[in-house]
């Protein structure tokens, strides 16, 4: 009795924990969706944002540590920290809401790049002897922007960065030549300019390579679509070809019916009106049959003037009624370019798949039923 109660308590506890964990997971998924959305492109952009925000945070934390050691003025670090936090959160909001704002990627990248440059100028101004380290930030700005900007736009941004940093250096060496020796500032500037222009050039080349790769990938993707279409479609009638129908038959697991449909006296049409007229009849019949298909049904050109229809989850009685309605509908089939009085008819043999027999056996029975329909005078539907 006691054991049973204990087991009951355990089950209840397990159920309770299960529900709680489920709710926590659901809440977590909602928060993640709210924060970074579901669109992969948006998520990628927010990943870039997160990388730069982390860099700002690291940078400001390091400066705070240095300010505690008396190397950097406290108020300068606080100001820069607030400015960086404000900028980072503004850009998060802009990127997150951009689906509604509609800002172009290069506009967003340029704004972020310019913000990065001003952070760099500020950091250079307050870091005293550590200022050389802040110059690395300019390279990050260039590389970050290369994802969204064209090479020329990246170059313009790099020039803006150099102008900003150059002005900052010039101002400091004019104001305080003791701590900012003009020669040191000049050499630093030249090295920084050389590095950032080289990085701009290299990222520009990388961008061109990426664009070329993208163009090639698009060509390959389009070629794959064409190859797939050619491999699965009958060129004349645009319905599936035999190979594709065989794939569909292989994939079909449940009960189904097949209908083998053969145009009557097609040789006569060819002989009397010419091969092109025969082709037009094939196209018109295929078009009419395809238009009559229900969702899930499939149609293929099985041979010369023969079509195979796959009717999943359909009984023989239902299939008979369905194909019979298609047959009756042929009475008003008009073939473009041919005498309107020409009546095109077809005969059809039906068979239902028995248990899980291979479809080749079902199609064989449908073929026999078709033969019977032809023998019985054509223009009719017979079930096996
Ligand atoms: N125009 C055209 N004719 C084709 C094509 N493929 C096969 N055929 C012709 O279709 C004809 C089929 O003739 P048969 O098998 O004798 O059949 P039928 O004249 O329809 O006779 P029944 O089926 O017994 O009513 C042949 O003359 C083939 O040359 C095609 O793509 N275009």
From TrEMBL:
Gene3D superfamilies tied to this protein: 3.30.70.270
Highest rank taxon of the organism: Bacteria
Pfam families: GGDEF
UniProt-listed Enzyme Commission number(s): 2.7.7.65
Reaction(s) this enzyme catalyzes, per UniProt: 2 GTP = 3',3'-c-di-GMP + 2 diphosphate
InterPro entries: Diguanylate_Cyclase, GGDEF_dom, Nucleotide_cyclase, Rev_trsase/Diguanyl_cyclase
TM regions (residue ranges): 46-65, 77-95, 107-124, 130-149, 156-174, 186-204
Every GGDEF domain range: 254-384
Keywords: Membrane, Transmembrane, Transmembrane helix
Protein name, per record: diguanylate cyclase
Native organism: Telluria mixta
Lineage, opening ranks: Bacteria, Pseudomonadati, Pseudomonadota, Betaproteobacteria, Burkholderiales
